């Protein structure tokens, strides 16, 4: 079958295909593997075997599984074309993307994590993305780096020439030869090769990626499953082929292939001494085998010392070592950490009424369920012995209340995992879990104290009936309880008609009311008015902001429709804040269209306010959605301008009508020169871009006059009126 536009097979590729087609040993599976030059991750050694991190792993996988590798050397784009056409069985060092997932099959466990970095001559000063303007940058043709850098340059409005070359070698050489100014590659290749070309690494790093072995689409599922199984096993085994490959090639031990002429010269020289050294080599081999046996014994002893034999998880001693290392790190580096101790409720019933084998099986199933529940979080799971487990969770942020909320949700998943792990034979015994949490930031804390606090909190959880989580710190526990109750109440707030819209007037330069901003309030039946700063972040975190935001927009539109019948109010607009979570919903635009049609509200009187942080989430998608909203006729405003990204490039490209100067800058008028300079610059910028400006937080006449003198025409703040409900 003729495949159009397919690269021609290289001589090495044809040889590999002929080898693959030839008879092989019984039971031996031939795997055609693509190899391109990208050390230290991948290259073809002088012995014809794949080298580098991926190459060493491929050889080790082949030995484990009884494969015979048939390497096919090819350029990067050629390798991918061969793989897609089914003329390769496996291609190492392929970064996963959604587009590639449609072209190739991937296994699940990443081999490596990488990122892209820019390298340049030391004499050239490149400190940031803006320094790339007007430069020629070498990139690997068809690579992720090429596409990602192009998107990044476009988003910042920077014009630079990307020179696509077929290999990293040619790319780095082009900088050395002066035909390009800089080169982009993965950080592993760059760190390996940049010194050889006299280049230095820049601070510009981007496009983190996960690297895998890839197979032709829809094929070799069993082969990929075996790769996953081996990777998962090797990653948990210090000294495995996986860790040996990382240590060898990241440390530079892997080196570069010896030229063929030098290799034969060395072989000829050493052949003269071969007979004399034969006895010595035999002795050395015996010593080496003996040392390897000693190392294996040491490794086995280490595993027995640090890992639990039943579950394969780290044990109590290993956990204490992790705690020591964590507490030795300055708190500012990672914020809060939590130790969760999990103790099974009524586990003794399994051993007493069933068997110890059933009990061991339950503990093993629990370890797997806990690992699945933890997912991609930064955690360390350990089996402390008997029916006790522990989880060390790092990177919980700098605020204790937010850290506690994250731990609470993680605890819920772990409690659910206890139920999910139970087989039908023990499901009727009522086994649950009790979790005790010690939350700490590393200051004046000993590992033994942390473990003791978590153990005491487990006792509190059991005393409360089990199947629950308790914090050692009573103040944190009370705050978590309040958040849980608040979330439960918030879920019912819409049904109970507890939400309210207050309106704050916006005035023009003549002091006439030109519009109002709708501000959400919650009239809690027991706690009174709950601060928006407390319940809105909770609504965003739980997703409740979507139905709540829909209610806000619909209520505001009904108000606008009613105003059309009152000549005194018909020209006034209503501004509504839109959460990034709500804005990202795929149905947001269509639902708004339906609300406008159902209420009869004039679209031109509805102003949707979005924040600067939203613009950075997905610039292309945000720009498209803003254009769709503008087509509906609604007005668009950028809220709290100056507190976020504040990219002038974005302001030029987005379909905005107005900016709102954040109240924090207005508060500094007329005493803070920095705030006044920001406001003055914003007004000048908006005037040049044809955008209206509303100054928020105006509280004094002095601020009002200063803003008027500099061309501001719309104002909002306590000077003109506080937020209040309308009849």
Description:
The longest helix is centred in the middle third of the chain and has 33 residues, at 274-306. It is globular, with a radius of gyration of 32 Å. The protein has an 8-stranded mixed β-barrel. Among the domains are: 316-472, Reverse transcriptase/Diguanylate cyclase domain (Alpha-Beta Plaits), CATH 3.30.70.270; 487-725, TIM Barrel (Alpha-Beta Barrel). By secondary structure, it is of the alpha/beta class. The protein has 27 helices and 25 strands. Keywords: Signal. One of its GO terms (molecular function) is cyclic-guanylate-specific phosphodiesterase activity. Residues 483-727 form the EAL domain. Residues 335-474 form the GGDEF domain. This is Diguanylate cyclase (GGDEF) domain-containing protein.
Give a quick set of tags describing it.
single chain, globular, Alpha-Beta Plaits, TIM Barrel, 727 residues, 8-stranded mixed β-barrel, alpha/beta, 21% strand
CATH architecture of the domain at 487-725: Alpha-Beta Barrel
CATH topology of the domain at 487-725, by name, is: TIM Barrel
Total helical elements: 27
Identify the CATH homologous superfamily of the domain at 487-725: EAL domain
Helix-strand makeup class? alpha/beta
Shape, per Cα inertia axes: globular
Number of DSSP strands? 25
Q: Which percent range describes the beta-strand content?
A: 15-25%
- What's the oligomerization state? single chain
Helix content: 40-55%
- The radius of gyration computed from the alpha-carbon positions, rounded to a whole number of angstroms, is 32 Å
